[in-house]
Amino acid sequence: MTIFSLSWILFCRFRCTETYPAQTELELDLKVGDIIFVSKKRDDGWYKGTLQRTGKTGLF
Fold first, then answer.
1. Domain of residue 32, residue span
2. Residue 2 domain-assigned?
3. Which residue of 17, 41, 58, 59 is most buried, as measured by CB atoms within 10 A?
4. What pLDDT is attached to residue 5?
5. Number of domains in the chain
6. Residues pairing with 48 in the sheet
7. Is residue 39 part of a domain?
8. Dihedral in degrees, nearest 10, Cα atoms 25, 26, 30, 35
9. Which residue windows are transmembrane per the record (predicted)?
């Protein structure tokens, strides 16, 4: 018997509509029009993603 395990990774892309200055080193410093590639939605409501403009990964 063969068992296959598949894992799918789904990435979302968000465009920033408001400026958000990072409050900690863990957060992204966002400007209007920035594109963020989202890799995870956390249970606490924050998202983890990579800012296209800088390549930095962080929370927003």
1. 12-59
2. no
3. 58
4. 53
5. 1
6. 40, 59
7. yes
8. 140
9. none
Q: What are phi and psi of 26, to 5 degrees?
A: -80, -20
35 is a domain residue: yes
Q: What is the pLDDT of residue 4?
A: 54
- Is residue 7 a part of any domain in this protein? no
pLDDT at 49 over 80: yes
Residue type, 10: L
17-37 pLDDT tens trace = 999 999 999 999 999 999 999
- Whether the pLDDT of residue 7 is over 60: the answer is no
Q: What is the rounded distance in angstroms from the CA atom of residue 57 to the CA atom of residue 55?
A: 7
Name the DSSP letter for residue 6: -
